[in-house]
């Protein structure tokens, strides 16, 4: 049984033919049951049933429709609705089976077309899904990279925190050692002075005692330099610890303060031993130490690229090029290193000439300090380099320390000397230092 909906095209063709008859004033040729439907453009279910019943029952009307369809066809064999219309209106032998075949073929074609449309739609959805997956993968990769970076930063922070803790413990040990060495130095200075003042030592014994004190002074200078290096390393750790780092900062603060105290203890011990060597009583030296104003170094050394400490020519070239830096030169220490075979006066001239050439090249502010206020025939009236001689009875090292202490804390300073005691003391005041040999290599 062929459904009305399957015959919609031919039934609406029949209605269109009736409407055409109406327009051509052939209303009497239109079957009466169709006349109420002539005003409709599209048939509903009831209308389809009505038209079908009229066409099936009115053979004359059906034949006229068939003839009109045949006359309008350019081909003998139609497809789709035209073929169904030809068969249903003409009703040749076996027409019902033929219609069933045509409708089946039409249904199959519609199914194929629908599947093709669905396939294209699915392909588009799949392509969109692939793009979305790629976008999600990119976002996941970025998120993983951020996670790896954060884990790395966290691990680095933890590592630096552990390093700061170890540095603090090491500094505490150094501080205790410095205190012990200070006490021992005071006792040795007292003993040396008492023995000297009471003349209980023979000449050879006194020389041996002096030699022992000088060795102790050298050892204390080395310990002071080690403490200063540790202080610089601890402060460098603080500059590279990521923030926030609640566990690191307190440890660094404790370590830095302890190192400052260790530096002061060792510096005082060195002064006492020097006093014993020069014949000043230990009590007088200690009293002078206590009376001198306590000045904690607020100056921060200029950071050196690559973490180097200032013992090669490249570091020298970097430091003398720092804007507004003041270079203080330990005169004879550098001059004797550069021109050891010449007389002192010639050494001074050669050094000052080399320093003036450096000023011409780099525009650096330079002060050179020599021992002795009684140098004959020497004038300090030079335009490019500030030449200074220490006062009578005062060595150049002490003059350099006074100059460094007098300069503002915000003023960057580099002291040029290979004297360990001088280097240690000015580092304690926050100055950079470079050795005499690399300095000469850099400026020549």
What does the model show?
Among the domains are: 5-92, no CATH class; 300-444, Rossmann fold (3-Layer(aba) Sandwich), CATH 3.40.50. 67% of the residues lie in helices and 5% in strands. It has helices at 8-23, 45-57, 59-72, 81-90, 95-197, 203-240, 248-278, 282-291, 313-320, 331-338, 344-362, 396-406, 420-428, 436-443; strands at residues 326-330, 365-370, 386-389, 413-416, 432-434. The chain has a 5-stranded parallel sheet with strand order 3-2-1-4-5, with helices on both faces. The longest helix is centred in the N-terminal third of the chain and has 103 residues, at 95-197. The protein is rod-shaped and about 155 Å long. Residues 158-184 have a biased composition (Basic and acidic residues). Residues 158-212 are annotated as: Disordered.
């Amino acid at each position: 049984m062929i459904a009305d909906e399957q015959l919609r095209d031919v039934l609406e063709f029949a209605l269109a033919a009736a409407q055409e008859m109406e327009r051509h004033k052939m209303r009497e040729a239109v079957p009466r049951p169709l006349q109420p439907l002539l005003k409709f453009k599209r048939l509903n279910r009831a209308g389809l049933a009505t038209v079908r019943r009229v066409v099936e029952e009115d053979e004359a009307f059906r034949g006229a429709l068939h003839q009109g369809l045949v006359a309008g066809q350019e081909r003998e064999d139609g497809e789709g609705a035209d073929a169904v219309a030809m068969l249903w209106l003409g009703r040749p032998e076996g027409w019902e089976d033929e219609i069933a075949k045509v409708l089946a073929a039409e249904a199959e074609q519609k199914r194929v077309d629908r599947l093709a449309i669905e396939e294209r739609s699915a392909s588009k959805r799949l392509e969109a899904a692939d793009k979305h997956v790629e976008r999600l993968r990119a976002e996941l990769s970025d998120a993983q990279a951020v996670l790896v970076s954060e884990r790395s930063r966290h691990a680095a922070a933890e590592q630096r925190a552990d390093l700061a803790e170890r540095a603090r413990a090491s500094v505490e040990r150094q501080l205790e050692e410095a205190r012990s060495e200070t006490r021992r130095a005071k006792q040795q200075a007292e003993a040396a002075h008492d023995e000297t003042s009471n003349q209980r030592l023979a000449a050879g014994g006194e020389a041996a005692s002096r030699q022992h004190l000088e060795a102790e002074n050298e050892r204390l200078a080395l310990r002071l330099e080690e403490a200063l290096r540790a202080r610089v390393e601890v402060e460098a750790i603080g500059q590279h610890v990521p923030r926030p780092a609640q566990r690191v900062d307190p440890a660094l603060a404790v370590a830095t303060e302890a190192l400052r105290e260790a530096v002061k203890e060792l510096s005082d011990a060195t002064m006492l031993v020097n006093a014993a060597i020069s014949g000043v009583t230990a009590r007088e030296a200690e009293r002078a130490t206590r009376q001198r104003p306590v000045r904690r170094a607020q100056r921060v050394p200029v950071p050196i690229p690559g973490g180097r400490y200032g013992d090669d020519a490249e570091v020298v070239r970097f430091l003398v090029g720092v804007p507004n830096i003041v270079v203080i030169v330990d005169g004879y220490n550098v001059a004797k290193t550069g021109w050891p075979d010449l007389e002192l006066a010639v050494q001074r001239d050669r050094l000052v000439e080399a320093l003036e050439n450096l000023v011409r090249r780099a525009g650096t502010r330079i002060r050179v300090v020599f021992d002795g206020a009684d140098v004959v025939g020497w004038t300090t009236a030079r335009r490019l380099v500030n030449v200074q001689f220490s006062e009578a009875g005062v060595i150049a090292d002490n003059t350099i320390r006074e100059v460094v202490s007098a300069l503002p804390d915000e003023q960057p300073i580099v002291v040029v000397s290979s004297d360990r005691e001088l280097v240690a003391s000015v580092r304690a005041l926050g100055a950079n230092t470079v050795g005499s040999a690399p300095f000469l290599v850099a400026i020549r």
